[in-house]
Amino acid sequence: MFFLGIDLGTSSVKILLLANDGKVLQTVTKDYPVYYPKPGWAEQNPEDWWDATRKGIREILDMTAGTAQEVKGIGLSGQMHGMVLLDQEDRVLMPALLWCDQRTQDECDELTEQLGFKLSEYTGNKALAGFTAPKVLWVRRNRPEIYRRIAHVLLPKDYIRWRLTGDYATDVSDASGTLFFDVARREWSREMLVFLGLSEQVLPTCYESYEITGHVSKQANAETGLCAGIPVVGGGGDQASGAVGTGVVAAGGASVALGTSGVVFACQENYSVDKENRLHSFCHANGKWHVMGVMLSAASCLKWWVEEVCQLDGSAGYTALLEEAAAVPPGSEGLVFLPYLLGERTPYSDPYARGTFVGLTMTHTRKHMTRAILEGVAFGLRDSLEIIRQQHIPVDEVRVSGGGAKSVLWRQILADILGLPVCLVNSVEGPAFGAAILAAVGVGAFEGVEKACSAIIRTVEQTEPLTANIAKYNELYAIYHRLYGTLRQTFRELGKI
Fold this sequence. Notes:
Structural class: alpha+beta
Number of domains: 2
Shape: globular
Helix content: 25-40%
Strand content: 15-25%
């Protein structure tokens, strides 16, 4: 018995074949382009997604000959917040607008001005340019001829679901990031649909992440080689699926994704909202909820430093700089880095924020600056953790994933700054792995998401915080946390130059 996990990322789709004992048999990744027609715009062609997905499915089935008949369930994960519009004949009306598309700030301002805190009451979140609802408003205002023809609004992964099954469906975790979903009630928000002028008929049917939403069609069988009739479950947004893939599905569990961006994700037994909406409040893929803080630049800060500034190539360059940084004492001898190279989301939601070194002296060298970057990213993640703690959400440990998690030094810095054990688990495949687990649960191979994760996922390495370092970093974090407020107006002035 095997399960397929499909994760539709921003730059590629990852397809994973999982055995029911938790062993990953094979993975395939297929790339596709992102288009940037204007500054701040980011679009993709949904047909590119499907072309890459169907080819990847065929390839993974060919690589594991004889497994096609044994695939018993499919789970989907993918980039959140994107918008795919179909007409009555199921034709794509325009390129998909992505999570990183920034054209909708005026629409976000309109939502905030007209709805105020009711927006949070209706959806559990505030308006951000990446979310789906502002994109719909933008189309209504700027492409009225397209808006009038909208028959279906789908999220990216759910376009793949439609191509696989012919069904218009989504899951509660991905729907939570649209800004027209009532996260508390786990259903579409009637108030938001009225405000947006949308009929619920244009939205997909919403399921729990482990529920079966449809079955592979004869058309998809012809295009992919999958057997017709295979159940397809709801799946999840990339962060919820990734949390399932690392076993973060119970109270006290939290994950840190140390990738291009940085995410602190904590489970909730019950729904709650940060009154200032600094955190996202979303449905989790296990039938409960989660909160999430997002920083826009995490491991990308180190990438920028190594490749763009220091002009070093390949893994050898990273290794050399990290070895240098390991020789620097905690606190980088009074040097602080603000990791706002792309602006910031949590906790400030400020596109004008800028990356900054503070405290440079003649005694500081490249190695100090490298360590300050590692520490600055960890401080940014702590910003989210502190808000989570203020919500009285318990966090006992963090499970870290992403490219930055490979660094022993960075894991120690993270443990010391967060004051928590930092764990690596036996799963390194991310959201595609979580999607496959959800498929296994959906077809009855496991009695619930928690039991599936307990059976499949285990800790393989744990980094404990060092008491002496905690005290030093607490002192430095207080300084770090004040710096944004001190420099906020300066950032805005620099942004106008």
